[in-house]
Specification:
49% helix, single chain, 4 helices
């Protein structure tokens, strides 16, 4: 189905834990470019997210919110977090519609670019405010 363009394979990880990720890695492998589905995304943090970032997964599909620390780690690692992706499940594997996957990744990338731009603006504003404060105190 993947070769014919009819579906994007998605590896299912039962829980967002180091053990569950290691189990999936051992059973099915986890390589760069894989898309993973975190069946239960609660409980995982920055260290757990870093494992998937280092595996260079293409995207992470979640059914509900994840911790802020994990989301931040995925953002810094440039790994899209996708919600509301329709999956056809079969045990530890699932398939997603390729066009829906591409559209969701593109949408995430737009939002991530806006977020990066806002962070740059905030940093510049902070430097400007710091400079002003130092000028007022006569340090510059």
């Amino acid at each position: 189905m993947e070769i014919r363009g009819e579906g994007t394979p998605v590896k299912v990880i039962d829980a967002f834990t180091k053990e569950s990720i290691a189990e999936t890695k051992e059973k099915y492998g986890l390589k760069a470019g894989d898309v993973v589905f975190l069946e239960n995304p609660s409980g995982g943090g920055a260290a757990t997210a870093q494992i998937l970032v280092e595996a260079r997964v293409r995207a992470v599909v979640i059914p509900e919110d994840i911790s802020h620390a994990a989301e931040e780690t995925f953002f810094k690692g440039d790994v899209p977090i996708l919600r509301n992706i329709q999956l056809e499940r079969a045990d530890d594997f699932a398939m997603a519609e390729p066009e829906a996957m591409k559209a969701a990744i593109a949408e995430w990338e737009k939002a991530a670019e806006k977020r990066r731009q806002k962070a740059k603006e905030d940093e510049l504003q902070s430097l400007f405010e710091e400079y002003r404060s130092e000028r007022r105190r006569g340090l510059v």
